[in-house]
Design a protein that fits this description.
Blueprint: H1 4-17, H2 22-36, E1 44-49, E2 54-59, H3 68-76, H4 83-88, E3 93-95, H5 96-99, H6 107-114, E4 119-126, E5 132-140, H7 149-176, E6 185-190, E7 193-197, H8 201-205, H9 220-233, E8 243-248, E9 254-262, E10 269-276, H10 282-290, H11 294-304, H12 309-316, H13 320-334, H14 339-363
Antiparallel strand pairs: 1-2, 1-5, 3-4, 4-5, 6-7, 6-10, 8-9, 9-10
Helix pairs in contact: 1-2, 1-7, 10-11, 11-13, 12-13
């Protein structure tokens, strides 16, 4: 039978490597976790914007709408175990009981107790390259054993695979249900050629060098990414990374390709996702919405990620006084008085609309969106 946790880790890695929508990934991963890490009720899954560490969606079976007061607590209250705190921590995993000497002093703990849960473990879903694409919350009732070292080791080991799975699921969702002219395109390829495509693929492929859509000739870059993705399918017990390539288009724009093998009992198939390479959406949005300078926008990013004044000063190689002057200007332009107010303003103005829309999309069986809502 082998090691149950090693077998469970293999299942999680396989689930995350197979292109699927985000809710299905959460649901099927929950099934594996239930057998491996005992917990109260069901997990709470989140997608995060890696550029800001702000929540873009959640999935909690039985809770279609995330309570407003919980969101307020996440972004306006002084508390422990908040998602951004865990996401930027070196370990990427924290429990509430270890984060505060007296749990009863934590609004988060009191909120959990009202739901019947005592312990809370938060895991950041951090990719191998360091980007955090999501988070997982697990809970236990009063008088239950604490999450032990073996369980923590298992959770940390599965985090990179699930982070890649979240990224892939968001891309596939956007490609199959496009929103806007820059939405990704999706091709499904077999050994014989193109099996299917989503609307807009022809537009992207026409911009790649040496391809000819009308003659059915795929660009070399697409063929290369597909071949690399096929090779990962030859090793089902090893978690294959998504094959990626960055290609300069005929118009001078960078385009990113992602390839992943589709696991099935039939003919081997590969999904290739094509999307424009663009800067993190939140930063141009902040500059246009509030008139922040480039330096102020960069500094605001670090505030969203929870950096202190000293850490920001070290990052920018300036004095703490200079950082405070920049912060003063940012506060004036955004109409807030503190760092926490700034984080709350950005979340509730630019992310909560996406968060609430994703709740409606989940209820309708539509793909989840990532990043802030478009202005």
């Amino acid at each position: 039978m082998g090691d149950p946790r090693a077998n469970a880790l293999g299942k999680i890695r396989q689930l995350a490597a197979e292109p699927r929508d985000l809710v299905r990934l959460w649901q099927e991963s929950t099934g594996v976790l239930t057998e491996t890490v005992p917990h109260y009720m069901v997990p709470c899954w989140y997608s995060l914007d890696p550029a800001s560490l702000l929540i873009t969606s959640h999935y909690h079976d039985g809770m279609p709408e995330f309570p407003q007061e919980w969101l307020n607590g996440e972004y306006y209250a002084e508390d422990v175990n908040q998602l951004a705190q865990v996401a930027k921590s070196p370990d990427g995993l924290a429990t509430l009981h270890e984060s505060v000497r007296d749990p009863s002093q934590s609004p988060r703990w009191r909120q959990n107790m009202e739901m019947g849960a005592d312990q809370e473990l938060v895991l950041a879903l951090r990719s191998k390259s360091g980007e955090v694409w999501g988070a997982l919350g697990l809970y236990r009732e009063p008088d239950r054993p604490m999450f032990d070292d073996g369980e923590r080791k298992f959770l940390r080991a599965m985090a990179p695979a699930l982070a890649a799975g979240v990224r892939r699921a968001l891309l596939i969702g956007e490609a199959t249900d496009p929103e806007g002219p820059d939405a990704p395109g999706l091709l499904v390829l077999t050994d014989d050629g193109i099996e299917s495509t989503t609307p807009g693929v022809e537009h992207w492929l026409s911009q790649l060098p040496d391809g000819d859509w009308e003659k059915g000739r795929l660009p070399t870059s697409i063929q290369s990414v597909a071949a690399r993705a096929r090779r990962t399918a030859a090793f089902p017990d090893v978690p294959g990374e998504v094959a990626m390539a960055r290609v300069l288009s005929r118009s001078g724009r960078w385009i990113v390709l992602h390839g992943a093998a589709l696991v099935s009992t039939g003919e081997p198939r590969v999904a290739v996702i094509v999307e424009p390479a663009h800067p993190a959406r939140i930063f141009p949005l902040l500059a246009s919405a509030y008139g922040l300078t480039d330096r102020e926008t960069d500094l605001a990013r670090l505030v969203l990620e929870g950096y202190s004044t000293a850490q920001i000063a070290e990052e920018f190689v300036v004095s703490p006084h200079t950082v405070q002057q920049h912060l003063k200007s940012i506060f004036e332009k955004t109409g807030v008085r503190s760092r926490r107010d700034l984080v709350g303003r950005i979340f509730f103005t630019h992310y909560e609309p996406r968060f609430r829309d994703n709740e409606k999309r989940v209820a309708r069986g539509k793909p989840v969106r990532g990043g802030p809502a478009s202005p």
